[in-house]
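For reproducibility, we list the full input for the zinc ion complex.
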Amino acid sequence: MHYNSVVEFERLQNSPSYQALLEEKLNRDRQKELEEKQIHEAREREWLRAEKEAQKVFLELQQKLALAKEERARQNEKIRLEWEEEQKRREELRQQKENELQEQLRQQELSKAKVEDFIEYGGDTPDHLKTTLETNPNKPPCPFFSKTATCRFFDVCSRNHVRPGISKILLIPNFFSHYSLEKTESDRFADAGLEFERHEIKTCYDEFFYDVVPELETFGELGLFVTCCNKESHLRGNVFIEFHSTQAALKCYRGLNGRWYAGRQISVQFVNIPSWNSAVCGVHFSNRCPKGSSCNFLHTFRNPGNSFSVYNKMKKDTEQRQRNHLESRNWRWSESPETSPKEDDWEVDAPRSSRSRVKNGSKRKRRSHSRESERRSRSSRHKKDERRKRKRRDT
Ligand SMILES: [Zn+2]
Ligand SMILES: [Zn+2]
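The corresponding predicted structure, in tokenized form, follows.
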């Protein structure tokens, strides 16, 4: 049986159909192997391509990163340079300001030294003080400020206020204070103790005068001491001080500005009063000022003993003006020259009003007036004669 099986097996093995089957299987295996090899190679190629692609992308990315890094570095460098430039500019600016400040301080020191020299030894007024300060240089001058160095609108006035850098006259605003100066007109009428109040304010003013004037005299020779009794806030208690020299005024300014008096800090200003006659209300002392306490011209206290009185000064100025006026006339007929008013014609209480002076001068004035008109008519007659003569000569 076993032998038969082996023989059968060999017979089957050697049979052509088996051999053909074997051959077919071998071919199939070879084909499969080839296909597998081709697939593997294709995969290999695909992988290589993908790898190459990836390498390319990676390289591009690397390049981009490198470029970005470079750009960032460039930007940082630019910012650094700009910052350095800015720092340099700031430093230069700081240095420039520092230099300017130093120069300013040097100039200030120089000016201060010049002022000290001027106060100590006199001589020419330092140049830097010969300036004027203007509030509205392009506007017309304020008529009140030009006359009284004060204005109800203070420095917000729409007109121009011109202040000198230095002068002989100083103004200390609201220096003298008294409760009655703060009162309104209606308060005054309601107050029964008017006479007492008048006496009280006079006593108070005299005390103020005797307290302040000796101090002012330590700075130099005092010319005028004028205190306003107006109630308007821009004039109330204002004190004008005129010295004989700008040197003394400057000394006083240096000594008083910023000092304290009666619990208040005082400020001193250089002012220009072209004419006291134009600044002081001419009818206040005769109690005939129609504007009363709201008058914009100076209503002043009478100084004890008329010392440093503005009225004496105004009187002298008026007399001088009259003298100049007379001297400037060229009368042909001069046998009766006009005379200036006599001493007793002048009332300190009514200094400037021409009306009151004519009244006070009464007969003498009227006489003088008639003499003057006579002289005028004579003069005009004389001129007519002259003209007639000339006409005749010409023909
Ligand atoms: Zn004004
Ligand atoms: Zn007045």
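Residues 14-121 form one domain. The chain is about 60% helix and 5% strand. Both points were considered when choosing residues for closer inspection.
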